[in-house]
Amino acid sequence: MNSGIEKITARRVWFVPDFEVWGLLDSGEQDYLAVEQTGSTQAIYYGTATFGQNEQSVDFEHLVDHRGNSLPATIEAARVIPRSKGSRTVFVVGHESSHGFKIARDPASDSPITTDLLIVELGD
Q1: Contact (Cβ atoms closer than 8 angstroms) between residue 91 and residue 24
Q2: Whole-model pTM?
Q3: Which comes out higher in pLDDT, residue 82 or 54?
Q4: Cβ count within 10 A of residue 106
Q5: How many other CB atoms sit within 10 Å of the CB of residue 19?
Q6: 3-state helix/strand/coil string of the chain
């Protein structure tokens, strides 16, 4: 049986430098109505369009830490803390799973954002 201090100090931590975040949150769906006239023919179109891109899905097993080691395929109760290297922010979307997480960049940025990731295993 582990004491409280042993549980705290037994957690694993990984530092992943220079991770490129390209994903964006969906801005949602937008209804649209269009009217077209070609010669004497008229048509009305109605539909729904999704704007924005998708958040970026990341599996832990595809990441490499600052020492060149691959992360394990599963991390129990992981928490991902992103630290952007520029003025634009990145954020974790939703909750981390034991296999990975979703991340997105500031929608005001027109290009991918480089960030460092600190990944902590909180355990059970």
Answers
A1: no
A2: 0.71
A3: 82
A4: 15
A5: 20
A6: CCCHHHHHHCCCEEEEEEEEECCCCCCEEEEEEEEEEECCEEEEEEEEEEECCCCEEEEHHHCECCCCCECCCCCCCEEEEEEECCCCCEEEECCCCCCEEEEEECCCCCCCEEEEEEEEECCC
β 56-59/100-105 pair status = antiparallel
- Tokens representing 118 are 């600190």
Please give the structure tokens belonging to residue 42: 């008229």
pLDDT above 90 (res 15): yes
Predicted pLDDT of residue 52: 55
Handedness of CA 107, 64, 120, 72 (dihedral sign): positive
- pLDDT bin (cut points 50, 70, 90) of residue 63 is very high
Average pLDDT, the chain: 85
Between CA 121 and CA 124 the distance in angstroms is 9
